[in-house]
From TrEMBL:
Residue span(s) of domain NAD-dependent epimerase/dehydratase: 13-249
Keyword Transmembrane: yes
Transmembrane segments: 12-31
Keywords linked to the UniProt accession: Membrane, Transmembrane, Transmembrane helix
Top-rank taxon, per record: Eukaryota
Protein's recorded name: NAD-dependent epimerase/dehydratase domain-containing protein
Pfam families, alphabetized: Epimerase
Keyword Transmembrane belongs to the record: yes
Length: 373
């Protein structure tokens, strides 16, 4: 097969935030499956300091991949990030401030301004499709899964600003876009999805104590594998019936705090229980104190466990932000994306997928190996 001529027909793409968790997995999916002729990664973090695993490092060294450093909040820097003599067909936006505990203006810049800058540039260079990763935390629903067109009441800073992005993408002339709202994303490279839950499990293993959790096992914490997120991004980009649409990306597990904690407990061979209504109700009125106590309880022992196994530096942390500890359900309807023919490779969250994450962390020497069975 004449590789060069088939390559010419394959799309050129830009992945914004390509060094991040979802971004690096999208890069890997497109390169591993030979789907692109050219791939530009834009990120403010260089790959060398992004804690890539070995496979992702190799992918990033592929000759089709080019890295460009940019601060996408800055319009000039953003414009440079898009400047190219190559044809860019698709732009995937996985960039945005996700670090917890920032102020509202920081999220406004790091999410709203960033996405709108990028969408405008994408329209300027006439791309076929702009895919925006939004947030699944657009409302809390306990009884019925949320559909894409249900009324919204975003319950995290990120979701609040992403909702504004969703609304304002409509007003950008000549922009063909699709919005994806992921549930909790897990998989290799995860630091903020299910990772903190795993790290907390390890902390209780280290302490030799029962893992105590807020609220109840029934708290919906729906999930999706990062590889399915990457596949879904590509799936929507290569179609026109997805233009202007919003899709939840969520597996069929209907994961809950209970189902996830059961797997974490099995992985670390620990017991778990819930604080029950007394403390959890107290938490409602004094969430600051409770969150501080919960995080303090975990941070020290985590550092200790890392030290013990000779880990001096790890990007992983058991810290859970206050807004993610509220009694808010992440319960998303699965059907809209499946109805247009998307199939999930990971329809159920299973313990083995979490074990793969642990093994990957251990291989990178960022997780205490002696706590992983
Ligand atoms: C979602 O948000 C709206 C407010 O926009 C609220 O009225 C509604 O009850 C919420 N819940 C669900 C499940 O839609
Ligand atoms: C949008 O695209 C049309 C047709 O390609 C073009 O005539 C028009 O100038 C574009 N508008 C903007 C604002 O770029
Ligand atoms: C897009 O989908 C069509 C089929 O609908 C397929 O033939 C084509 O190879 C796909 N293109 C890419 C870039 O995936």
């Amino acid at each position: 097969m004449a590789t060069s001529s088939t390559n010419e027909k394959k799309p050129g793409v830009i992945i914004l935030g390509g060094c991040g968790f979802i971004g690096r997995n999208l890069v890997a999916y497109l390169i591993d499956n030979k789907l692109v002729s050219y791939l530009r990664i834009v990120d403010k973090v260089p790959p060398q300091t992004a804690w890539l695993n070995k496979h992702h490092q190799e992918i990033f060294d592929n000759p089709l991949v080019e890295f460009k450093s940019a601060n996408l909040i800055n319009p000039t820097s953003c414009q440079n990030a898009f400047a190219s003599d190559k044809t860019i067909d698709f732009v995937f936006n996985c960039a945005g401030e996700i670090k917890s505990g920032q102020t509202d203006p920081v999220y406004r810049e790091g999410i709203y301004k960033l996405s709108i800058n990028c969408a405008q540039q994408a329209a300027n260079i006439g791309v076929k499709h702009f895919v925006e990763i939004s947030s699944g935390n657009m409302n809390s629903s306990e009884k019925a899964p949320l559909r894409e067109d249900d009324p919204t009441e975003p319950w995290t800073f990120v979701a609040k600003h992403k909702l504004q992005v969703e609304n304002d993408l409509k007003n950008i002339p000549n922009l063909s876009y699709t919005i994806l709202r992921p549930a909790i994303v897990y998989g290799l490279g995860d630091k903020s999805g299910l990772a903190p839950r795993l790290i907390i499990g390890a902390v209780y293993k280290h302490l030799g104590e029962m893992m105590k959790l807020l609220w109840s096992p029934g708290l919906h914490m729906n999930t999706v594998h990062v590889k399915d997120v990457a596949r879904a991004m590509w799936f929507v980009a290569n179609r026109t019936d997805t233009i202007g649409q919003i899709y939840n990306i969520v597996d069929d597990s209907d994961s809950t705090q209970g189902s996830i904690s059961a797997m974490v407990s099995e992985l670390f061979n620990i017991n778990h229980d819930y604080w029950g209504t007394a403390l959890s109700t107290l938490a409602k009125t004094d969430m600051n104190t409770v969150v501080e106590e919960v995080n303090d309880k975990h941070m020290g022992p985590w550092a200790e466990a890392c030290n013990k196994d000779g880990i001096e530096n790890s990007p992983l942390s058991p810290y859970i932000d206050q807004e993610l500890l509220y009694n808010k359900h992440l319960y998303l309807h699965t059907k809209k994306l499946s109805n247009i023919g998307f199939h999930y490779d990971y329809p159920k969250l299973i313990k083995d997928a979490l074990k793969d994450m642990l093994d990957d962390y251990v291989s990178m020497k960022i997780f205490p190996h002696s706590l992983v069975i």
